[in-house]
Amino acid sequence: MSAVPASSVLSTSSVVIDDLRRQLLRSQITRTDRRVVSTGFERLDGLLPEQGLPSGAVIEWVSDSEGLRGASIALCCAAACLKDPGALAIVDTLHCVHVPALSHRGIPLSRLLLVRPGRSPQSGQVSEAELSQAQRSDALWSLEQLARCSGVRVVLAWVDRLSSTAQRRLQLAVENSGVTVFLMRPQTALRQTSWADLRFHVQSVPRPVTADGRGPQTVNTVSHIAVRLVRCRNRVQPQGQILLDYNHETGAVSETSELAGSATTAAAVG
Amino acid sequence: MLCLKLLNWPVQRQQRLLSAEQRLRVAIHTAMPTGRTNERSRHPADDDVSFVRQLFPSARSGPAIVCVSEDAWTAGVRPGMPLAEARSMAAPVTGRRTQAALSAETTFREWCPEDERRDLKAVAELIRCYAPIIGMDVAPVPDSLLLDITGCGALFGGEAALAEQLLKHLQTQGFRGQVAISDTVATAWAFAHAHGHFLQALSRQAMSCQRSGQVSAGDWNLPVIVIPPGQAEAWLHPLPIAAARIPLTDADVLFQLGILTLKQLLSLPFEDLPARLSAQAVQRLRQVRGIEEELIDAIPEANPVSALWVSDDPATNRGEVRQVLDHLIDDIVVQLKRRCVGAIRLTCRLKPESGQTIPLVGEVVKPVQCAAELSEVLGLKLDSLHLPHPIFSVRMRAVVAPLPVARQQDLFSPSAHIRPAEELAIVINRLSSRLGKQAVLTASLTDSPVPETSVNLTPVITGRRPMREIDDRLSELVTPHDASVWTQAAFDAPLRLFSEPVLLNSGTVNPLSGGFAYNGRQHIVADVVGPERLQTQWWQDTAVHRDYYRVRTQAGAEFWIYTDLVSGRWYLHGVFE
User: Fold this and answer.
1) Residue A157 DSSP SS3
2) CA–CA dist B27, B86 (Å, integer)
3) What are phi and psi of B197, to 5 degrees?
4) Which residues of B478-495 are buried (b: 16+ CB within 10 A; e: fewer)?
5) Which residues of B touch A68 (CB under 8 A)?
6) Alpha-carbon torsion angle B126, B131, B135, B137, nearest 10
7) N or C: at which end does chain B have fewer Cβ atoms within 10 angstroms?
8) Bridge partners of A62?
9) How far apart, in Å, are the Cα atoms of B329 and each of B361, B406, B464, B536?
């Protein structure tokens, strides 16, 4: 009788534990009317306990900095959710959402409801951190109202600070209405408590460095984005990340091929 | 849309004022022409006079007949005839004033266009229960009322039944009318006036002007004409061009060109028409074709839905004012239910002891009869209102519209009756009440290549949007449709576009080589894609000359930067989020 390698035992047991976790989660999900929609990215679906984005959930997308395409990925997922009835509402506090970009991400503009609370921000006001208290409270109120409305399918909003009370209210609102709320959040949110059902961390993957210590001199049309699941409600420890390709010429977001993924994962982890 | 034409309106109106003997032979004549009308104080009735003088040249120099009853016509009195001639023709043969002689005598009455318009508005009040929005015909010498009956047909067993009941109702009040129902105001008017404006038709009859090539519109003298949705254009084809309400001068031009029917007119290349016809004629044709929407200019209600609260004991704080508003809303809702209509706007005037009256306006997307919903909308508005003094009186008035058809609730499924469009309408009401109408928007793309003007944002709640359009818009917002129906933008654009571009490096240092500071961070450029040149026409007021670059930083972020080709300065215009 040949001995079984220790590494094989470990990997088998981790698969079993994963499977048990998923079964536990399914038993904890009591709501029967919760719908699950594929994100449009097979590997991202694979990371999620329900194999897709649930309706009636708050989902956070945390980006290390602006310009990292976190919102673009969220919009791709939102477009998938819009196969169900309901509008896509965007709470645009800074009054700067550029509608043609939504159209390019697969959002039909006929389904878009743009909510711009408060006055138009002053010149040079480029982040949510600079908003006044009144603007913040109007934005939060709008977000909650939209999250309560069953005529809305997805709400997308940029929020930098969110109290636990506000998060809990939002959670109860979406559980009742079935709305999916996407919150675009800055890196500082990683240090804050979260009541979100899912939290993704979007990071840029550094490009491979050449022998002379400098990056490639040729223009690379594709860059990699790492999407890591850092929080999942119901106490199941989330695991894993996926890599997405972003094509700068076409603006397309797609899953990284296996070979490219293995090469760049090392860079991301390193 | 429904067009109610009151047959031979000036005569019909006068006949109601006369005794049974006198009303048989009636002729309406113009007054003696006076001096020029003051253009500044021009009244719609002045346009009526101009129209009649244009139609009947004899009316320019003296009193002339405008229209006559059937019996007067038989007696030989004709529209366009000078009054003196008409009097001589209509004089009774016998000199004794017997009963028979009195009935044979023609009654001449002076034409009063202002009174006619006023009485037409009075007729509108009689038929308020058939449609919430009623307007007067915009043509000179109006003889018609226009009714927006969207959604009202179901209350009467169909649109034809509504029309029949309306005519019966008017008959009991002593009015004679004809009804046409069609998709738009212009087509409904055309079917009700198949021979053109009633004075034009009378004028043609009077002159027996069977000019060569004159068309016969067929028999359209039916009491009720209902054109099925989408079939109006086919039925319009045989009608004469006068049915399109085009001005007389344009009709003459077309007649000289041999264009007699709407089929001929509508088949002409549309882009050539502005060179041949007046702007008003082109607009009328656009309305007939359905390219341009025609809104009914609603006649204000004589007896509006309103409520009043006055007290010696003033409302001193916001809570008390709210209670007063709720009390008035309850009163308003009772009136709405009695009239079977919904409120689309509530206008309140809060009067303090001293100082100016404070206005408070609450609007909803779709008409409602629900006190709680109206109270919520006004309450949100009240929260943002400054109330410096105690309030002694509040007057509330409702703008009404027909109620949407009630939804059927499912007994066994708690959520099956929920209609997303209605739920969305409620949240839009709330958001618009607190944030303002301009804060809740829908978007469409324009043809402009300039990023700042490439999008058209429209508030969901706008004052004068037809109910059907609002329903369609709400339904479109919540209904998934086939991906092939809409076109996806071909080019990637930044998700965040700054309304005012951010000046980089004081505008002078090239950020492509030296990097740039933005939002408290220093960004070093790793990759650049571009330039993409954007130049608009030099004759435009805000000409744009820019070279755009898509810049990827070492941190992986991507920005949209441009250099102004005129000033040479560098700006950050957007972020690819």
Assistant:
1) strand
2) 9
3) -55, 145
4) beeeeeeeeeebeebbbb
5) 556-557, 577
6) -90
7) N
8) A185, A201
9) 13, 21, 23, 54
Q: How far apart are CA A213 and CA A215, in angstroms?
A: 7
Tell me which chain A residues have a C-beta less than 8 angstroms from the C-beta of B448. Answer: none
**Cβ B339 vs Cβ B306: under 8 Å:** no
Backbone angles phi, psi at B15, to 5 degrees: -60, -35
Residues in A touching B440 (Cβ below 8 Å)? 113-115
Nearest CA in chain B to A107: B488
Tell me which DSSP letter residue B161 carries: H
Helix orientation angle between B44-55 and B198-206, rounded to the nearest 10 degrees: 20
Model confidence at B103, pLDDT cuts 50, 70, 90, reads low
Query: Which distant-in-sequence residues (6+ apart) come within 8 Å of B335 by Cβ?
Result: B305, B307, B398
Asked whether the beta carbons of residue B488 and residue A148 sit closer than 8 angstroms, the reply is no
Q: Do A33 and B434 touch (CB under 8 A)?
A: no
- Tell me which of A11 and B53 has the higher pLDDT: B53
CA distance A157 to A168: 16
CA distance A164 to A234: 17
pLDDT of residue B465: 61
Q: What is the ipTM of this complex?
A: 0.80
* Apex A216 CA angle, A215 and A220, nearest 5: 115
Query: With the CA atoms of B432, B435, B438 and B442 taken in that order, what torsion angle do they form, in degrees rounded to the nearest 10?
Result: -60
Identify whether the C-beta of residue A63 lies closer than 8 Å to the C-beta of residue A183: no
Give residue for tokens 């009240």: B382
> Where does the pLDDT of residue B37 fall: very low under 50, low under 70, confident under 90, or very high at 90 and above?
low
- Distance linking the first and last C-alpha atoms of chain B: 47
Q: Which residue of A has its CA nearest to B558?
A: A67
**Quick one: which H or E segment has residue B224?**
strand B224-226
> Is residue B252 exposed (0-12), middle (13-18) or buried (19+ Cβ within 10 Å)?
exposed
Whether B102 shows a pLDDT value over 60: the answer reads no
Given a contact cutoff of 8 angstroms between Cβ atoms, the answer to whether B220 and B191 are in contact is yes
Q: How confident is the model at residue A215 (pLDDT cuts 50, 70, 90)?
A: very low
Burial class (CB in 10 A: 0-12, 13-18, 19+), B284: buried
B chain contacts of residue A99, beta-carbon cutoff 8 Å: 443, 445, 454-455, 457
C-alpha dist (Å) from residue B251 to A27, B57, B233, B368: 78, 17, 20, 45
B427·A152 Cβ contact <8 A: yes
Picking from B80, B185, B88, B169, the residue whose alpha carbon sits closest to that of residue B130 is: B169
Which residue intervals of chain A are DSSP H helices? Answer: 6-28, 42-47, 70-81, 99-104, 133-148, 164-177, 258-269
**Minimum Cα–Cα distance from B503: chain A residue:** A124
Q: Could you tell me where the DSSP H helices lie in A83-153?
A: 99-104, 133-148
The structure tokens listed for B227 are 């054109």
Q: Residue A93: pLDDT above 60?
A: yes
Cα–Cα distance between A37 and B570 in angstroms, integer? 43
Tell me the two tokens of residue B473: 């818009």
Give the count of beta carbons closer than 10 Å to the beta carbon of residue A126. Answer: 19
Which tokens in the block code for residue B162?
A: 């509504």
A217 neighbourhood in chain B, CB within 8 Å: none
Distance, CA of A111 to CA of A30 (rounded, Å): 30
**B293 in helix, strand or coil?**
coil
CA B288/CA B228 separation, integer angstroms: 16
Nearest CA in chain A to B451: A98
pLDDT at site B93: 54
Return d(Cα A35, Cα A178) in angstroms, integer.
8
